[in-house]
Amino acid sequence: MGTVTLALGVVGLALLLWGGDLLVRGAAELARRLGVPPLIVGLTVVGFGTSSPELAVSVVSAMAGRGEVTVGNVLGSNIFNVLFVLGLAALVAALSVSPQLVKVDVPFLIGASVLAWGLAADGRLSRLDGLVLLAVLAVYVVVLVRAATRRQGEAAAAAGAEGERAGTGRQVFQLVAGLGMLLVGSRWVVEAAVALARAVGLSELVIGLTVVAVGTSLPEVASSLVAALKGEREIAVGNVVGSNIYNLLGVLGSAAAVAPAALPIPAIARAVDIPVMVGVAVACLPIFFTGHRIDRWEGAVFLVYGAVYTAFRLLEATSPPAARALGTLTVGFFVPLTAVTLLALVCRAARTKRAGRG
Q1: Predicted local distance difference test score (pLDDT) of residue 308
Q2: Phi then psi for 293, rounded to 5 degrees?
Q3: Which residues are CB-neighbours of 50 under 8 A, at least 6 positions away?
């Protein structure tokens, strides 16, 4: 591993932290000035912007005929975003969840996940499938823009439109500069990590399953952690939900639309990764619903499941018997335990709601 590559990796980490700080600060200030809820900014500008690495990797891979890389990148990134990014952010500080997320955005994410699962059931994603995903994304963006415009209009009427819109140039610059630093920093960190992995003898498959999927999610990691540390918790959560929606509909849809042939969906992805992705999205709803927050212990649960999933995928590629043993343990112990915990949370929330009415 060269000294230059290592140095770029260190600089890349610094850019991730600095860029995350600029992006979150600019997004939060811009939302306040324009009267737009921080959640909307997190779902759109921050969430879509931090998905740029996934878009670049997936589209280039699809055009080169490497469709499995595209599919694996999207699925891996979505699972990583919820289990690791939200988990880490919640460990830093309990995250507040907007009622809009519970009523609109998470159900939309679940619907998008199920739609992608249905389109991939035949083992391929055609150009028509990609256009369907992009059309659904357009509908979602229109809904968000209308909601933001309505809120902005209300704020402008209360405080004066000129006063709200003045001086937004600095915030826009922070957004653009922060996003640029995240993209450059994540690329340098990934290059350094790949070089290090090769130096210690890891296979290309293992590198693809871990470094590439995690590397393209580094902007989400940096921005969500910085947002949690700064108390901008709606941006932290909105970033993950918005990024996952864009990954499924925008990234996967664009890749399928431009690919020279239909994207192949491997059997293992249909049997394991897509169901896990859908399950992770569904699990968000009861956790978000109970108290409209993600507590630290819930973040720890996300991290444990993320570690189990990653271990399973690595073992499945290197030691199938060990992977089957881990899968049996997960299905027989962790899944029932989580189901009971979620049921208890929902029951507790229902009792609290009834007590409040009484």
Answers
A1: 84
A2: -160, 160
A3: 23, 179, 182, 219, 220, 223, 239, 243
DSSP-derived secondary structure for 97-118: --HHIIIIIHHHHHHHHHHHHH
CA-based torsion, 307, 18, 106, 232: positive or negative: positive
Can you tell me whether residue 124 is helix, strand or coil?
A: strand
Tokens of 224: 């969500």
Burial of 256 (0-12, 13-18, 19+ CB in 10 A): buried
For 40, other C-beta atoms within 10 Å of its C-beta total: 26
Classify 312 as helix, strand or coil: helix
Any residues with CB less than 8 A from the CB of 232 and at least 6 apart, and which?
24, 27, 28, 38
Which secondary structure element, helix H or strand E, spans residue 198, and what is its range?
A: helix 169-199
Residues 274, 75: contact at Cβ < 8 Å? yes
CB neighbourhood size of 266 (10 A): 15
CA-CA distance, 52 to 22, in Å (whole number)?
17
In sequence order, what are the beta bridge partners of 263? 125
3-state secondary structure of 293: strand
Q: What are phi and psi of 94, to 5 degrees?
A: -55, 135
Please name the residues in contact with 194: beta carbons below 8 A apart, sequence gap of 6 or more: 207, 211, 212
pTM of the model: 0.75
Tens digits of residue pLDDT in 168-220? 777 778 878 877 887 777 677 767 766 766 676 665 445 655 666 677 677 77
Confidence of residue 136 (pLDDT cuts 50, 70, 90): very high
Contact assessment for residue 97 and residue 237, using Cβ atoms and an 8 Å cutoff? yes
- Render 132-190 in DSSP notation, one character per residue: HHHHHHHHHHHHHHHHHHHHHHHHHHHH-HHHHHTT-HHHHHHHHHHHHHHHHHHHHHH
Query: How far apart, in whole angstroms, are the C-alpha atoms of residue 221 and residue 184?
Result: 14
